[in-house]
Write a structure and sequence with these properties.
It contains 13 helices and 3 strands; from the N terminus they run H-H-H-E-E-E-H-H-H-H-H-H-H-H-H-H. Helices cover 63% and strands 7% of the residues. By secondary structure, it is mainly alpha-helical. The model is unreliable at 15-51, 73-90 and 107-129 (pLDDT under 50). It folds into 2 domains: 2-18 and 150-362, no CATH class; 36-135, no CATH class.
């Protein structure tokens, strides 16, 4: 019965929130010129993965130039009417956190056939399966789109908070029963709240965007923590479910643009991993709890640290769960990203060894409310 309840709560929650309608088809060149007068720069339509990465990285570079004031005032686009060789276009670019820039550019016409030819060459080169090359400038622009410049107050607060909760899981995850259930409820509710907020975020963000994300996520996270303390019979399985959730995201993060590139398949994989780990709580409770708390702690610590050191790891999480049609997310991997993923494994193994030695071998302790029997002296 408990597992059935978990299935009802866990899988539909992710599925219903994350899966969004597919973007509409790209307008032709003439229509784009008219559309830009009213709407922000449009993201490329996702069709071929390799071409998507190249186009989206180019889009990031254009946005970075527009937002930092380094934009080129002459832009070249392909138009079918060669009688109109140039025109002035006003475009609106959202630079994050409520900052919107309106720019005026001179658009120069080029032959449509040239554009089609270059598009064909790009598509054919992409079909060969070569990895998208990203130089230092491309990587810097990619990180700018993810984190902005420097570390914001919201990033610092979120990063520190994630690392503190992670340290708790790494050290005290098994030894503290109700504390671990409360921390699990907080993380689960906060993450699900964030997914709901990011997928329903308006075009130019919420009023006081960063404050909204932090306050709403933390507020509902505290509700989850309070709730899980009292429904421990069900909350116990969410420890494994949350670990399976993070393990699935971790596995998907080992490949550029994710290991599983079909959205529905990704959601099924994540939900399935959560259910498998929840079932493992029944079969091997002590070992599963130790591994679950260790992995949750290891992954959350590196994810929080990533908001300071900017390795791009957070983009895997964004690419999976941010289905907002107004957002454009891609995930590429360089050496810093691989190092971050490797340290998740290192922290997990270190925490597992510590918790197993201290709680199982030394104290011979079980997970739960441990009641010690008092010895009564017989008369």
């Amino acid at each position: 019965m408990k597992i059935s309840l978990l299935l009802c709560l866990f899988v539909p929650a992710i599925y219903a929130i994350v899966i969004q309608p597919l973007p509409t088809a790209t307008l032709d060149s003439g229509a784009v010129l008219n559309t830009r007068l009213e709407s922000p720069t449009a993201a490329p339509v996702l069709r071929h993965i390799k071409r998507d990465l190249e186009d989206t990285l180019s889009l990031y570079e254009n946005w970075a130039n527009d937002c930092t004031g380094n934009n080129d005032n002459n832009a070249k686009v392909a138009v079918s009417d060669l009688n109109n060789l140039w025109s002035t276009v006003t475009s609106t670019v959202y630079c994050g956190n409520g900052n919107v820039k309106t720019l005026t550019k001179t658009v120069t016409a080029t032959k449509t056939s040239t554009s089609k030819s270059s598009s064909t060459n790009k598509s054919s080169s992409s079909s060969k399966g070569n990895k998208v090359k990203c130089d230092d400038k491309c990587w810097s622009t990619y990180l700018w789109h993810t984190y902005g410049y420097g570390i914001t107050v919201a990033q610092g607060f979120t990063g520190i908070f994630c690392m503190l909760i992670a340290i708790y899981f790494l050290i005290f995850g098994y030894s503290s029963f109700r504390g671990t259930l409360a921390a699990t409820g907080f993380v689960f509710f906060a993450v699900m709240t964030w997914i709901g907020l990011v997928n329903n975020e308006p075009l130019h963000g919420y009023p006081h965007n960063e404050v909204t994300y932090i306050c709403v996520s933390v507020g509902l996270g505290l509700v989850g923590a309070f709730l899980f303390i009292f429904i421990y019979g069900v909350a116990l399985y969410f420890v494994g479910g949350l670990a399976g959730f993070f393990v699935a995201v971790f596995i998907l993060s080992w490949k550029e643009n994710l290991v599983i590139q079909i959205q529905v398949a990704r959601i099924c994989f994540i939900g399935g991993m959560g259910v498998v780990f929840a079932i493992m709580i029944i079969l091997l409770e002590s070992y599963t709890i130790i591994f679950s708390t260790s992995f949750i702690g290891g992954y959350m610590f590196i994810l929080g640290l990533d908001l300071f050191i900017h390795t791009g790891l957070i983009n895997a999480f964004l690419t999976i769960f941010d289905g907002n049609k107004n957002h454009t997310n891609v995930y590429i991997i360089k050496t810093p990203t691989y190092v971050s993923l490797a340290f998740v494994v290192v922290l997990t193994l270190a925490s597992f060894g510590w918790q197993y030695y201290w709680n199982i071998i030394t104290k011979k302790k079980q997970f739960g409310v441990n009641i010690e029997e008092k010895k009564v002296d017989k008369c």
